[in-house]
Amino acid sequence: MNLMGLAVPLMTSSLLYPLLAALTSLDGVVPMVPSEAVVLAAGDFAHAGTPSLALVVVATALGVFLGDHLAYGLSRSVLGARLINRSRHVSRAVASAHRQLDRRPALLIVMSRFLPGGRVAMNLASGTARLPLSRFSPASAIAALAWAAYTAGLGFAGGAVFLENPLVGLAAGLGLSFVLGGVIELIRRRTAARRAVSEISCATRPRSCRPAS
Q: Which of 2, 16, 63, 72 has its CA 20 to 30 Å from the CA of residue 136?
């Protein structure tokens, strides 16, 4: 039986909330944990009144917040370099995030939550860059609550639209989540490309970048 098969019977149990917190915490360092699907399913079932949508959001946000700090702490420990360098993809993503952290880190931390793999990369980069907790923790809290409300809300909306077939609602929620992630990634890449062109223009034509007096 897969994880979703184990999770569905828990949807009407009080054990659901610690399960959500645990899965979303683990997802902060082990991205293959299917926490998003379970949160969507919980939101889907919440349309029937059980579980409580508010408690699903709170438990999920708490788990995400704890998972963020787990990844942040690991990246600052002696295990950080080993954890990052075990995967070429992760090391490239962390290096890219590291270069962008000096520009609006709070916004980047929040936006990365909605990108596939962005959460882990940004949390690891924040740790290795020694971003102070006074800046990391508030951004992580906002991102955690925003993602929890969005994901559980998608499941809830799917349950409302596909009342007779909740599995279809769950599939629709997953699809919309992937679409949003793709849109945000496209915007991020276009913004990065525009910034690169601007920097090249400034390097080749410095006069064009002088502020107006």
A: 16
Burial of 82 (0-12, 13-18, 19+ CB in 10 A): exposed
> Average of pLDDT values for 154-173?
61
Q: Rounded to whole angstroms, how far apart are CA atoms 165 and 170?
A: 9
Is residue 2 assigned to a domain?
no
pLDDT tens-digit series, residues 11-52: 888 889 999 999 999 988 887 887 888 888 888 888 777 899
Element (DSSP H or E) covering residue 14 = none
Cβ neighbour number for residue 31 with a 10 Å cutoff: 16
Residue 6 included in any domain: no
How would residue 162 be classed by pLDDT, with cut points 50, 70 and 90? very low
Strand, helix or coil for residue 50:
coil
Query: Per the structure, how many domains does the chain have?
Result: 1
- Whether 56 and 132 have beta carbons less than 8 Å apart is answered as no
Give yes or no for a contact between 99 and 133, defined as CB atoms under 8 angstroms apart: no
- 3-state SS assignment for residue 141: helix
Residue 141 has a CB neighbour count (10 Å cut-off) of 16
Q: Does 135 fall in a domain?
A: yes
CA distances from 75 to 28, 71, 83, 125, 130 (A): 12, 6, 8, 8, 9
Q: Which structural domain, as residue segments, surrounds residue 122?
A: 11-209
